[in-house]
Amino acid sequence: MLETGTVARFSGVGQFSSYCRCVESVRQSNGRKKGEGNTRNGNAYLAWAFIEAANFALRQCAPARGFYERKQRATNRIVAIKAVAHKLARACYYMLREQQPFDVMRCYA
Fold first, then answer.
1. Helix or strand run (H / E) with residue 106
2. For 105, which of 24, 59, 62, 93 is 20 to 30 Å away at the CA?
3. Could you tell me if 87 and 66 are in contact, meaning their C-beta atoms sit under 8 angstroms apart?
């Protein structure tokens, strides 16, 4: 919460995930890659924190582990961990916006 400031400054969950460096920075037009944006844009500390939280979630949370294993079958390990971190970043945004506690079934359903 201290790294993001007020959550109202983000217009949506996508902007929050982008600020946390949990999404790819790619520009496309007509389905073709036209370049990459500023991949260093956002908060490096939040990116590190969500990756660490994802690694911890893989050890402790069965739904997170199931999601990770499904992603790992389709891609590689690093992309799968980043996908779990993205899920956690989205959950964090909604927790801060709605002032609700974390719900694992809402996150990984």
1. helix 104-108
2. 24
3. no
Residue stretches of the chain with pLDDT short of 50: none
Residue corresponding to tokens 């993001």: 4
3-state helix, strand, coil in the chain (%, to 5): 60, 10, 30
Residues 53-68: pLDDT tens digits? Answer: 999 999 999 999 999 9
Task: Give one DSSP letter per residue of 2-51, joined into a string.
Answer: TTT--GGGSSSHHHHHHHTT-S--EEEETTEEEEE--TT-S-HHHHHHHH
pLDDT of residue 92: 92
SS3 99: coil
Q: Which structure tokens are listed for 92?
A: 């964090």
* Domain ranges for the chain: 11-108
Give the span between the Cα atoms of 14 and 1, in whole angstroms: 17
Q: Write out the H or E segment, with its range, that includes residue 73.
A: helix 62-74
Instruction: Tell me what pLDDT residue 42 has.
Output: 82
